[in-house]
Amino acid sequence: MKNTGFANRLFDIFNYGALSLLTLAILLPFVYMLSISISDPIAIGAQKVGLLPAGVNFGSYKAVFHDNQIVTAYWNSIRYTVTGTFLVLAIGCITAYPLSLKRFKGRTVITIYFTVTMFVSGGLIPAFMNIKSLGLLDTMWAVTLPSAFTFWNIIILRTNFQGIPNELYESAFLDGAGDWQIFTRIVLPLSKAIMATIALFASVGLWNSYFGPLLYLSSPGMQPLTIVLRRILIANEVLSVDAIDTANHSTDMASFLGRMEGIRMATIFVTIGPIVLVYPFIQKYFVKGVLVGSVKG
Question: pLDDT tens for residues 105-127?
């Protein structure tokens, strides 16, 4: 017993130590970027900024939000994410419900047909030509519709729906409820946990989506934050002259370079901010039982 207790304590020490190191490895880069984004441009240019900011200056954030392309891209990312997530949940739930019913005779054939789409696709060029032929190029639907139907999400939802006790369905049928009432009043309320999980994965994927917008969106006014961030970080573009002047009015080279680096770091934080803020509100659904309290006795 003593050896078992010592082994458990040793495992706990190792486990907490490894998790602490992993947490630091994840957090420290963000702390460093945050420190640069709020530091004085001259200190940034002179490379005097560490984990703690060197002189607090929020000029970089003022420059980011002063620039119209950032504000427009921010709004585009929000509406693409919200619309796309809604479509993923709506199409997924409506498709998964009939496939979860044993009395639906064609569900096996349809399931096999949908499963093929997980392994076989037309490819990039046919997908682009399809979007073009439908007149969806340079529209919101070119980004949101291709990701709306994901059979993997439908499989997860179908499995969850099949786990709901048959007694609930039978009781609802005896009370005169139809499929639509059962779907909206029983199935969906008991599936909040899995729906929240899928919504989180879908929203993160849509928010960080890069290749789709790059391929289908050509107008600057339609591009999301990921495309603008790519131009700022990879293509080494800078914001407008007015935005730069908002950050700092100094003209020496060290201040200019520091100003540009601060704006880039601020842009990264502006980009990842919404997803980081939304997660704590959805986290409870990951540990909450799907059917807790639904069946008594």
Answer: 888 898 888 888 888 877 888 88
pLDDT tens figures, 140-179: 999 999 888 888 889 889 988 888 888 888 888 888 888 8
For the chain, the DSSP string reads -HHHHHHHHHHHHHHHHHHHHHHHHHHHHHHHHHHHHTB-HHHHHTT---SS-SSB--HHHHHHHHSHHHHHHHHHHHHHHHHHHHHHHHHHHHHHHHHT-TT-TTHHHHHHHHHHHHH----HHHHHHHHHHTT-TTSTHHHHSTTT--HHHHHHHHHHHHTS-HHHHHHHHHTT--HHHHIIIIITGGGHHHHHHHHHHHHHHHHT--HHHHHH--SGGG--HHHHHHHHHTS-----HHHHHHH----SHHHHHHHHHHHHHHHHHHHHHHHHHHHHHHTHHHHS-SSTTTS--
The model carries a pTM of 0.77
Which has the minimum average pLDDT: 26-35, 114-123, 185-194, 240-249?
240-249
Query: In this structure, are 86 and 28 located in the same domain?
Result: no
pLDDT at 57 over 50: yes
> Which residue segment(s) compose the domain that 21 sits in?
2-45
Residue 246 falls within a domain, yes or no? no
Same domain, 25 and 170: no
